[in-house]
Amino acid sequence: MGPTAALSIVSLLAGFAAARNCANLTIPVSISARQGLFKDVPFEGNLDATTFSQNFNNIGQNYSQVLLQGYQTLTGNYKIAAQFCVPEAGSKTSTIQLLSHGIGFDKTYWDVPFNNYNYSYTDVALKKGYATLAIDRFGIGNSSHDDPINVVQAQAEVEVLNTITTMLRNKKVPGITGSYTKVIHVGHSFGSIQSYWLSALYPNNTDGLVLTGFSVNPAFLPATIAAWNLHIARLNQPLRFGNTSNGRGIDISAPYRSGKVVGAVQGFLNKVGVKLSSQDIWNEIATTEVANLIEGYNHSVTSYNYPSGYLAWSDFTSQQYTFLLPGYYDLSLGLYAESTKQPVTAGELLTIGSSPSSSPFTGPVLVVTGQQDAAFCGGDCYANTKGAASIPAAAAAAFPKTSKFEAYIQPNTAHGINFHYNATGAYNVIQSWLGVHGLAA
Ligand SMILES: *[C@@H]1O[C@H](CO)[C@@H](O)[C@H](O)[C@H]1NC(C)=O
Ligand SMILES: *[C@@H]1O[C@H](CO)[C@@H](O)[C@H](O)[C@H]1NC(C)=O
Ligand SMILES: *[C@@H]1O[C@H](CO)[C@@H](O)[C@H](O)[C@H]1NC(C)=O
Ligand SMILES: *[C@@H]1O[C@H](CO)[C@@H](O)[C@H](O)[C@H]1NC(C)=O
Ligand SMILES: *[C@@H]1O[C@H](CO)[C@@H](O)[C@H](O)[C@H]1NC(C)=O
Ligand SMILES: *[C@@H]1O[C@H](CO)[C@@H](O)[C@H](O)[C@H]1NC(C)=O
Ligand SMILES: *[C@@H]1O[C@H](CO)[C@@H](O)[C@H](O)[C@H]1NC(C)=O
Ligand SMILES: *[C@@H]1O[C@H](CO)[C@@H](O)[C@H](O)[C@H]1NC(C)=O
Predict the structure, then answer these.
(1) Residues with Cβ < 8 Å from 291, sequence gap 6 or more?
(2) What pLDDT is attached to residue 7?
(3) Which atom of ligand 1 has the smallest separation from the CA of 23?
(4) Left, alpha or beta for 104 (phi > 0: left; psi -120 to 50: alpha)?
(5) Which of 70-84, 235-249, 263-277, 404-418 has the lowest mean pLDDT?
(6) What pairs with residue 78 in β-bridges?
(7) What is the distance in A from the centroid of ligand 8 to the CA of 423?
(8) What pairing do the DSSP bridges indicate for beta strands 68-85 and 22-38?
(9) What are the tens digits of pLDDT across the range 343-361?
């Protein structure tokens, strides 16, 4: 730790909420990314999203290849929203964990306020003395949005991640005056793919990789896309993903949460002679797009104003299928995640499989995947392992030069590690592993 980092902590504390030592930053980045130029795909209504999924999953074609017209160099200046946190005043570190969320979430994945933050990855890392920077990936959340087919693609996001890493090392992030000499890249899912991708292109710009919700087996992606039942994001949550012109005014989010909507709907149905139990009505609202329609009926909630071509899984049932292990997560947290979910762009899906096939990174790599992960393990990381100890363990082949590779399988956990009762169990494994592999705070 250099004296500069200590100074930065002192200067930042003034602006922090007392207990958590975190600040929201907006980071301007300039990037240049060589990436795909795809044919235009219509995204007018939900059926267009379904057509996209059908084409994407068709085993007779590589849809990315079908749409690819050539390559382009994207250059641009963008704004990246981030949450920066430092440990208790007085603790010192020059090691920072740079956190990249996966599809369907934003930077808050790492610091879920639910249940007084007891699912927070950030809290666990701070307690071990690390600083953390969680970004909204380029194109998502409060970071700049752009053309969802030809701008917001994986390669551009990797360039953003690499640029921010260099800025951290060189004290160039506005709002962070300290210098971080060690940057550990921690990802979840697509964020892990991008962290891996960074290590393949810029192996000298990372000091360690923690890839959660990850394997290098692409066999389960089509089932995941199918289960998402993708819809146009701005139609799925018009009041949150759409813009203010969609109208507001009647605030029904509070009564919905308190259960009053269930009673009102039941009263209405009774009047027209339909007898449904309140449990059935709750099901019909909470597990379908009815709940998504209601989300955002609140003047103070951000309107993200996502253009068509930003897609979202349809409802809570899709979310459970792809992220959650029944019986091992709190239903209220699942509903919370549904109410704060984020979209995916068509361009991201078309480029998710285009990472380099191996990384020359020489430092330590830890993969942590839930045993019942559907997207990266097909529901069981110990099945069909083809000789490796687990499906994630086979990722070792992508790191031929690493000093240390380990795959850890977290029990009773599906893809959304963060939302399971034992999330902090996995998070403690990660911090301990970093500590014994030369990356203590
Ligand atoms: C950062 O933004 C989040 C989300 O809007 C908010 O809850 C939090 O209070 C902000 N933190 C600070 C320190 O301003
Ligand atoms: C599909 O095509 C894209 C674009 O050419 C390519 O990057 C990707 O590797 C291909 N995927 C497979 C599985 O061949
Ligand atoms: C996104 O930005 C808006 C407007 O500044 C703010 O109200 C909102 O809390 C932010 N959300 C997150 C998750 O940072
Ligand atoms: C990384 O650093 C090593 C040693 O300084 C150097 O030989 C290598 O070319 C660098 N690799 C890249 C991709 O910059
Ligand atoms: C809001 O959405 C409508 C419909 O997509 C669009 O025509 C309009 O330009 C948007 N308004 C803003 C301020 O982006
Ligand atoms: C509206 O959203 C704000 C910010 O998320 C929240 O504090 C408030 O409780 C919400 N109001 C209702 C009535 O849900
Ligand atoms: C959070 O608290 C709840 C209720 O006390 C508990 O059931 C759950 O296991 C805790 N989760 C984590 C990740 O610590
Ligand atoms: C929670 O996770 C830790 C770390 O993987 C593991 O050692 C422990 O057995 C898990 N606990 C349960 C109840 O699954």
Answers:
(1) 256, 285, 315, 316, 335, 338, 339
(2) 32
(3) 13
(4) left
(5) 235-249
(6) 29
(7) 9
(8) antiparallel
(9) 999 999 999 999 999 999 9
Distance from C-alpha of 36 to C-alpha of 354, rounded to nearest angstrom: 10
What pLDDT was estimated at residue 178? 82
* Ligand 8 centre distance from Cα of residue 370 (Å): 11
pLDDT at 42 over 60: yes
- Nearest atom in ligand 7 to 421's CA: 9
What pLDDT does 248 receive?
54
> Which residue among 38, 354, 357, 358 is best mutated to probe the pocket of ligand 2, counting the most ligand atoms within 8 A of its Cβ?
354
Neighbours of 315 (CB within 10 A): 21
Q: What is the pLDDT of residue 263?
A: 83
Q: For residue 205, give the nearest of 264, 158, 247, 172 by alpha carbon.
A: 158
- Chain-centroid distance, C-alpha 343: 10
Distance CA 129, CA 99 (A): 16
- What distance in angstroms lies between residue 68's CA and the mean position of ligand 2's atoms? 10
Supply the residue whose CA is at minimum distance from atom 4 of ligand 2: 65
Task: Confirm or reject: Cβ of 46 under 6 Å from ligand 6.
Answer: no
Using the mean position of ligand 3's atoms as its centre, give its distance from the Cα of residue 102 in Å: 19
CA angle centred on 100, ends 149 and 189, rounded to 5°: 75
pLDDT of residue 19: 60
For the chain, which domains are there? Answer: 6-218+357-436 (3.40.50.1820), 231-347 (no CATH)
Which residues, at least 6 apart from 339, have a Cβ–Cβ distance to it below 8 Å?
291, 295
Residues having CB closer than 6 A to ligand 5 are 243, 245, 305
User: Which residue in the block uniquely carries the two structure tokens 């379908």?
Assistant: 288
Going by CA atoms, what residue is nearest to atom 13 of ligand 1?
23
Q: How far is CA 212 from CA 120, 385, 406, 429, in A?
A: 15, 18, 12, 12
Measure 421 CA to ligand 7 centroid, in angstroms: 6
**Is 246 close to ligand 6, i.e. is its CB under 6 Å away?**
no
Say how many C-beta atoms besides its own lie within 10 A of residue 408's C-beta: 17
Is any ligand 8 atom within 6 A of the Cβ of residue 424? no
Q: Quick one: what percent of the chain has pLDDT higher than 70?
A: 90
Q: What integer pLDDT is reported at residue 20 of this predicted model?
A: 73
What integer is the mean pLDDT of 395-420? 98
